[in-house]
Write a structure and sequence with these properties.
By secondary structure, the chain is mainly alpha-helical. It is 66% helix and 0% strand. It is built from 7 helices and no strands. The chain has helices spanning 13-25, 30-41, 46-50, 54-61, 69-87, 92-114, 126-133.
Length: 134
């Protein structure tokens, strides 16, 4: 188990944080930022290099997206599945899949409201999701 940043990492902690802020402002989510830092800049682990996670750095610098990443990904999946179901009305297995995705979204909604990430009056609906994510 590696417990400290390798000596061969070309960037220091402040340069990594600046890159994270730049990539977040360019519209990348935290998972994509981690991949870019690993593949293009040779940073194997942001937490070892900076002592903080990518999302913690994004929150500290004020560049967090309005919706949590997992919730927005589920909403995108629900939107694309709804488009599929409009074209394929007899696809009952994917209709059930949409119901399962929406159930996950509602569970996450309750969790994020309870922890203060989402406002108390925020409500999921498929039409609102399409407006929020476009």
């Amino acid at each position: 188990m590696v417990s400290e940043n390798p000596s061969w990492v070309p960037l220091n902690a402040t340069e990594i944080e600046d890159l994270i802020v730049k990539l977040a402002r360019d519209g990348y989510v935290s998972a994509q930022i981690g991949l870019i830092l690993r593949d293009q800049y040779g940073v194997p682990d942001v937490k070892l290099a900076t002592g903080k996670t990518i999302t913690a750095i994004m929150a500290e610098k004020g560049v967090m997206p309005a919706l949590p990443e997992d919730l927005s990904n589920l909403m995108r999946r629900a939107i694309s599945l709804n488009v599929h179901l409009k074209n394929n009305k007899g696809d009952v297995s994917n209709r059930r899949g949409l119901l399962m995705i929406e159930a996950k979204i509602r569970r996450l909604e309750r969790y994020y409201k309870r922890n203060g990430v989402l406002p108390a009056d925020w409500k999921y609906s498929l039409s609102n999701a399409e407006l929020m994510l476009k």
